[in-house]
Every structure is written in structure tokens, then in C-alpha cells.
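Re: your question from the hallway

Yes, I did run it. Sequences:
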Amino acid sequence: MIQSKDRKDRDTTFREPLFRSPFYDFFAAKESEGHWYNWNGYKSPTILSDEELEYFSIRSTCSVFDITPLNKYRIVGPQAEEFLNKLTVRNVTKQNVATVKYTLWCDQEGFVIDDGTLFRISDNDFRLCSQEKHLPWLIDTSYGFDVEIIDETKHICGISLQGPTAASILRQLGVNGIDNLKPFHLFQTKISNMPIMISRTGFTGDLGYEIFMKNNVANKFVERVWKAGSNHGLTAIGYNALNMARIEAGFIVANIDFISSDHAIRQNRCRRPDDLGLGWLVDLNKGFFNGKKAILNSKLEDSSAFKIYALEIDGKEPVEGSIIYYNKKDEVGTVTSAIWSPMTKKSIALAQLKLGSSKSNMENLWIEIYSLKELQYYKLMKKVSIVKPPFINLARRSACPPANY
Amino acid sequence: MEKNFDVIVIGSGHNGLVNACYLQKAGLNVLVLEKNDWIGGAAVSRELHPGILYSNCSYVCSLFRPEIMRDLELPKHGLQIVAIEGGTVFTRDGDYLASFRNYHAKKRELERFSVKDSESYSRYSRDILKQCRFIQPLLMRTAPDPASFKFRDLSEMLYLLRKVNDLTASELADTIRFWTMSISDFLDEYFENDVIKASLAVSGIIGTALGPMSPGTAYVLLHHYMGEVDGSIGAWGYARGGMGAISKALTSSFRAMGGTLLNNSEVEKVDIRGARVRGVILKNGDEYLAKNVVSNADVKRTFLKLTDPEHLPPNFIKKVNNFKIRGSSGKVNIALDSMPKFPGVSDTNPCLKGDIHFTDSIERMERAYDDWKMGTWSRDPFLDMMIPTLTDPTMAPPGKHFMSCFVQYCPPKVGGKNWTKENKDAFGETVIQQIADYSPGFKDKILHMEVRTPKELEEEVGLTEGNIFQGELTFDQLLFNRPIPGYAQYRSPIKGLYMCGSSTHPGGGVMGAPGRNAAVEILKDLNLSGSDIRDAYEVL
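Structure:
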């Protein structure tokens, strides 16, 4: 007879398939209509109160957003730098301590697995944050390196404060050093004995900070932030508002704007860094890294693959998922993300298009829109122009010191 | 009673019925002959204990092609396939790994055993789906004869080559490795945890006389993964009313189109005159005439028992003799007075509604296979256990249950000798004891129990050696090699004699594709339109 174990958590897996972040209670208290979605296995809000007002808090006051569901891998050890130089396409030896770099990593065929941010905490101590999960790939790549890879996702939590008054709120909170913190830099400090790591980073194209901490201080910390923000228009937001801001900033998301090679069932859905407009990240002068040879070879090929473009579209109809045509008849691609941009007062989109290298193909592009008006669709063809991202460029994003409101 | 038909189908297994339906639908006058007094071959629901229906052979449904259900209007004739939830592996340390349809619930369970494996699972699923995309479109097409220069064979070969050509070099390498490697090696490429590997290895060995470490078992896993329930690839379901509901709906559809089905009509011989078929002769001496006879029986039974060897070329007979159809599994079917208790699992946990296993390592599966190689049933067998009555209210009165236990490994002969009653009882006891080890009081709940070894599967169902797939699904016996090179297009050396069982491409499982594909070929030979036979839906 087998003696069965008494598992206290035995029913959680099917009763609550989605994890709850340590900030769950804080955000749930501000949520009014049950708008939740699954983000990387966490129950996360899409809208807390009002999508537009949440968006305007990012652009006018300050927003607080739960970034705990991001995957967070801690990479520690004497060969952490060498390992990351093999894993990612940027040159990690050029990344200073206390900085953050946007980066991406490829498989051996040079196809992008994911993008993310690499935090260099000290010489031999890094944190890699990403949208998708990569532990098996990190472990596979670490073979032969003296390095330890720890999945911190469930142990470290974080919030993102984004918006013009973000710096003021942190000053109010008593964080010293905010004035000197440049974009893509980080420092560690304590607030009322709660250790935190602050970086001037974000996903909005605005002034903003990301703050990581251990789970056990999460609630106390976020309540302190909330209080400090009470006179600075601090607003709790869900994903939809953030998504509007990130499209304006021209940021792409894995498995929305491109298919991660880790997920692609059809090989022709895989993309190389150049296709994502991120070829500038790749350092072909450094030694071996995953995908280097394939990326070099692909540069010799005729460029005919799908690439990501930023588009402005005539009119104001929603264009998400629409098909784009050359000369109104030849299909050239699909919109992957789109919004009406409140900052530019334009309909903007990110799209994957197969245009080839000829300049003339960039003109004469049209989008087919099915506009629904009271149960009847109106088929529209609107003019599309390719623009250079980002759609917005805000001086306050990089102003140092940031203005005090 | 009419004695003349256009086509006679031997056996009312699901493939025989699918074949008969399509032929009847095309305007032919079809007779189906069934030796038993029930219909359905291995897809049956039988009331072996008062009030309780047993799916006493096949027990779950995923592979049955939706195109066939639609063509033959099976839903109108009462067929419902209901998706099932969950599944679980009990471990010897008293824990269990549950599985759920909800992706996140499933991943959370995996995480309890290994965070890395939980993350690897998505890459594993991607790779299996990639292989599915390659092979699934071949299910509903006749395999080309690579040695033939006929237009259709060349064009089908071209289709295959194009598919291969669409693969990148590394995908092609992966595909060839996948078809040839063992499920154990394949899983090692993704996972580290024993329990997780054991739970996934199951589909690689079911119905196969190979162990998880035998080359070729990775493909068997794919074969089990290619099914779907309402478009959800890899999902499994129950036929409402037991597996017999499939045969019942097929029969109803067949009869509604004017087809004739006779029970208690065991065919003794196919009547062959002058190298072509004339009809069949039954055990009871009755004769039925038809220029075309389709055998739903396996290739060995068809050509070594039902056909006189004088009509067959010697090399053909030799190949049929050598066809691998080794029996490897048995079944224990149980009627229960109440739901068994599994103390570690709460009563509301939906994982019990799926497949329940007690084998928590690949090593144990392989050792179970070792016993089979030594000519006996496994002392520590692998069970695939299901309680469909938790999902299906039509099979037993409320509170009572039918439990299906698929048992592996179980040889066609014990130590080279025929099964005895003592052997059979000991085999049943081994199975019951394994369940009772995890479920206290289990034995007291048993109302009735049916033990089926390969011997019963052969005698009652007609499956040679009790092999549930009518021949193993190893790569040497697939596609244009199934069942025999040169005879993979449902025809035989004898004009008018066809095969439509699982011995033919694409093989076993309650899929219906062999029966359908055979109908396409027969109609072609008769210059009749097969326009009522829908092409396969696009996959993925």
C-alpha cells in the first residue's frame, strides 16, 4: 500500500491556474469590472478603471503597473559576462556596471528567440528580463561556463512607475539619487529598510522607472508609493493602457509583433534581428555568439523576407489585424499592433510587410479595413505611409535631472 | 434473402463500416458480414454487467477523422464525441502529477516537479506539432508506390517530396531522427524529471510490442497525438455511450442508405475463381456473391486464413507471415459499485476524469517490457486506466462506474504455451493489486470484472495475436510499406479482393481513415465517382 502525501496546495493548480503577483491585492482593490487576462501565467489586469484615463496618466501624471510576471533570470558567476556574450547579440563586455541594455537573443539559425533587458548589477551579477520563458535555453547555452542561472520570476517582484511625475513621486518617497539617474542606469537603495533596485527604464517612451524588490516587502512598498503619489496624479493601470503607450514608443512584443523562433511551428515565421529593425543591436565584431554565422550568411542573401515597419494610416478607423496591399491588389503583409494615438492624433500601426529592397515598393501601399457600423461592414481602402519609429519622441524621457512637478 | 451484392465487407469493425458506408453512398449494394452477434469489432459498448456498458476494447477517441463523421452524417445518427479533462500519474512516494486541459494548470503541476521541464514543455509541444503538420495530411491519402511509374503514384511521390523539400535542413534531420528514435531518447532532449518523462512516454508504447527505449517509439507517440477533438490537436474524448456509439452511428448511417448488415455470419473463405473474387462462403455453408470483397480483418487473417494460398504468390505469403503483429497488451474491464478513493487527490479534482497511471518512471516501463520479452505478463505492468462514467451519464446508473484498464505488457502466449485459466486469473490479480496499492478498499468495490488477454482479443475480436493496431506502427510498416511493399494501396494480388483494416495505411486507432481511403481506391477501380468523399481538412 502506498501512503499518500498530504498536500495542502493540492487543489490550487486547477482552482487557480494563474499565479497571483505579490501586488495582486493592491491592484485588485482598484479594479472594478473584472478585466483580467493571463500574462505569462499570472492573473493580470487589462483595465483597472478606464483605459483612456489610465493611458493619460502615463502621458500626463504617473502610472503604476505590475511588472512581476516578466521572466527574471539572475545570472551570477565568474563567467557570467562571457556566457551572456555568447547568449545575446550585443557586446556585453561594453556594458558598464549599473546600466541596463535592451538586447535580444537568437537560436543557432540566427532567428530571434526573444528580446529583453539586461541589468548589470555588478561585474559578475546580471538580471535578464524577458516576455517569454527561456530557462532550458539559458541552461543549454551555459554548458562549460562557470555561471549560475537562477529563475527569480517567482521570488522577485516589480512595479513600473511611468509618466512625467514619476521622478517627483520617488523624491517624495525619499529616494536619493533620482536627479542623477540617467536613462538606462540603475542603483540599489533602501526605503524604510526595504531594499529595492531602481532603474530608469520602461516600456512607454516616457519618463519612467522600474523598481524590483523581494516579495516580502511588496505590499508595504507599493502602499508607500501610492501614498507618495497621492498629490502627483498616481494612477494604477492595466495592460491596455501600457500597450497604447508602447505602440506610440514603437516597441515590439514577442509573439504579438513577431513569432519567437521558440514558438514557431512554421519555419518561415521566424525572423532575424534585421527583419525586426534591430540589426543595430548585433555586434558582428565580437567572438562567437548564438546565431552569428547564420546572421552573417543572411546578409549575403537577397533581402526578401518580412520586416517590421511603423505605419501611419489615413483616417481614424481601427486597423488591428488588417491586410496591407501594394497598389491596392498585391497582398504584402499584416498589421500586428495598432491604435489611434492620442499623442500624435493619428492612426498608427506596426506591421510585418514583405516589400523587398526596392524603394518604390514602399510607396503606393494601401490597407483594407472592414469598418463595422451597426452590424454592417464597410470595406475601406486607406492610404498607408511608412514612417521611422518611434511615433513620439519626448524630451522628458531623457532629461537629466527630470523636471520637478 | 438476397444473395447477390456489389460489394461484401468482411467484419463490422469501424473501418469496415466506414468503408461500407462510403461504397453504399456511391450507389453500390453493400453487404457487411459480422461473425459476432454484436457489431463494431474493437469499437463496442457491451452490457457485461446489468445496467453497465463496457467499452471493453478501445476506450477513448481522438483519431476518428472529423471529415468522415461529417460525410457519413454520424452526428445525425447519434454520435457525440465529448472532450475529456485531465489525467494523472501516481508516484510511489505518495504524490501525483496531474494534468489538465487548462494550459496554466498543467504547467503549474509540471512546475511542482521541475521548473525547467515546465518551461521545456512549450518547446516540446512545438516540435511535436511540427511533426504532426508534416504527417497528418498523409492520413487521408493513399500512399504512393515508389516503384511505380503510374501518373498518380508519381504525382503523390512528388507531393511527398515537395513536403520534404519544404523542410529546412535541420527540420529534415529532426524529422528523420524523430521517425527512428526511441521515445525515451526523444524525451531526454527536453526533460529531466522521471515522472514527467514517464507521463509523456505513455503514448509511445501503447499497443506496441516495444519498450520506451526501443527505436521507433517516438513515432508511435506522434500517431497518438495526431487526433483532435473539435479542432484541438492532441486532445482526447469519449464517445458518449462508449466506443460502441461509433459503430452504432456508422451502422445506422449505413442502413439508412439501404446497406445490409448480418450478424452471426462468420466468413470461412473468400471464394476465388480464376484469379478473381466471386464472393464469400460462411462457416454455416451460406454463400454470398459479389465481384468485390473488402476485408476489415488484419492482413494475416485475411490472407493466411480467409484466402486459399493457391491464389497467392509465395513472396506475398512470406511477407504476410513476417508482418509484425505481436500482441503486447491486455484489458481488464471493471464494473464498480462506487467511485474508488485515491486519498491524496481531492474528490473534485478533474484529473481523475482522464487517464490514470501508476508508472512513474521510464525505467519501470522498460522493465515491464523485459517481462514481455521473457514471455510473460509484466509483474509491475503499465496501466492506462479510465473511468468514462465520470463524464458520460449514459453508461452506468448514477454513482456506479465502469473502469477500463488497458494493460501493458501482456504476451500472446505465456512462455511459448497457450494461456491457461490460472494464467489469466493471475494476470487479472496483478492488475487489481496495482490499483489497490494506491486506492484503499478498491477490491471491495468490484461488482464484475472481465479480463482479456491477447488470446481473448484474438478469439473474440479477431485481432491476430491480440495486436490492437492490426500490426505494429514501426516505420518499416508504415506508409507505402503498410502492410506490404507493393500492396499499400488497399488492393491485393487477387482482382476484386481489397483490404480496409488497420493493417493498411495509415494504421491503427479508431481513425476510420483506412476504411475511407480503401473506398476511394475501390470506387476508382469501378470507375465510380468518389465526389461524396470529402478531402482532408487543412491541418493546423
